[in-house]
Design goal:
The complex is a heterodimer of chains A (213) and B (45). By secondary structure, chain A is mainly β. Chain A is 13% helix and 34% strand. Chain A has two helices and ten strands, in the order E-E-E-E-H-E-E-E-E-E-H-E. Chain B contains no helices and one strand. Classes of the chains: A mainly beta (213), B little secondary structure (45).
Chain lengths: 213, 45
Amino acid sequence: MKTNTSVRNVPIIGWKVAHSYVRLADLSVIRFSPMSFRNTTYGIEDKALCHGHKHVASAPHLHCVCGFNAWDDEATSLRYMFAVQRVHEERLQTSSPELRERVANWTMLRVALFGHVIEGTLSATNIDDFGYRSSNQRVLDIFFEDRCAMCENKTTQLVALETESFSPFFAGDCRRLRPLCTMHLNETHITLDLATLEKRNNVKIHWGYPTSE
Amino acid sequence: MGIGNPVRETEVPDGPSPAYTPRRSVPTSPPAKPSRQPVPEKAPS
């Protein structure tokens, strides 16, 4: 059993993929929107709520998919991200580099899971091999793609920008975080200072997705 | 979750988490080339 309480006295480390954004009211506070259930957002440290079946007092509920879902390791998380990315590309027919910013640049998160934890994630079929659902989550590390959202160049700057989205959630004062190269920066982008973000959110920000081996 | 599998639940305490360390160690020097043994000259028959 992976989550044996008799030997575990620290939070469980999980890996997940999300959209990241800031609000215009405070550009230094990072928030996240999950890959699925995108009307349910969360902050750096948060407690799970079940919006589907209102398991507010007991999320993650045993017979639900609520709670903070996270994979067991970075390799599974990467596979999940690339698989979803391929589905989006095929669905939107946006394989061309010009439209790549619509589907690329998701954020990978390394999170600490604690509180009530259930083994097995939303998409998992085998609880022995896959991740967790937890009641509490704290984001420890944020990984942004090291390629520009618009081309294949190396990322030089993290910006907050208004993007067309699949979901109406990102309308209003939400600005999605995008890594861009120097060539694609323009005056409409709000450039963000990584050191300020790290200090304010108490996280570590990395360029490039983690490798698994 | 698979049908018939026991569901595992537990209470995990909060606390400090270990810092991220990448699993892949970046090599700082190129791998050493295998030393080649000199091919012995064929003895004249």
